[in-house]
Design goal:
Layout lengths: L11 E6 L6 H13 L3 E7 L10 H11 L6 E6 L3 H8 L3 E6 L2 H18 L2 E6 L9 H9 L10
Parallel strand pairs: 1-2, 1-4, 2-3, 4-5
């Protein structure tokens, strides 16, 4: 009989991405992770020097710090390389990913299966609450590039 893995008490989740910028959809996933499946979340900002970001690493970290200033259960860190390597290095129990649609779910499920097979790290997939499902950092980045107001998308 396979051993059942419990997600919850004493568990640390990694929520990874570039977060350029950190949206209300991202916050929804982090908050729900803390409510239901983990005691701590590390928001891990992937550093990719080849990718041009609108905001510096420092600006991205500071924006997220403002959102979670009074929550000791959320840490913010930056990493280079593979998310799974970073998760192992910091002793994370699992990765958590936000899913906005069924199409996203199929892709994320494939990635989760590969991560599990190659590294042994589980991935928890959470559907973003419906009111945030249209929000992505790509959309916000695009609106910002056209100098549009994006306040409704940011926490």
């Amino acid at each position: 009989m396979a051993e059942e893995q419990t997600i919850g008490k004493g568990r640390t989740a990694i929520f990874a991405g570039s977060f350029d910028p950190f949206t209300i959809g991202h916050k929804n996933i982090v908050d729900r992770t803390l409510e239901s499946v983990a005691d701590e979340v590390i928001i891990a900002i992937g550093i990719n020097y080849e990718k041009k970001c609108m905001f510096s690493l420092h600006e991205r970290i500071e924006a997220i710090r403002k959102v979670y200033a009074n929550n000791p259960r959320v840490r913010i860190d930056a990493y280079e390389g593979l998310t799974t390597d970073f998760a192992k290095r910091v002793g994370a129990s699992f990765l958590v990913r936000g899913v906005r649609s069924v199409k996203d779910f199929e892709f994320e499920l494939d990635i989760a299966e590969v991560n599990k097979r190659l590294t042994g790290i589980e991935t928890v997939l959470l559907f973003t609450d419906a009111q945030y499902s249209c929000v992505s950092s790509s959309i916000v980045r695009e609106l910002l590039s056209y100098h549009q107001d994006v306040k409704e998308f940011l926490p």
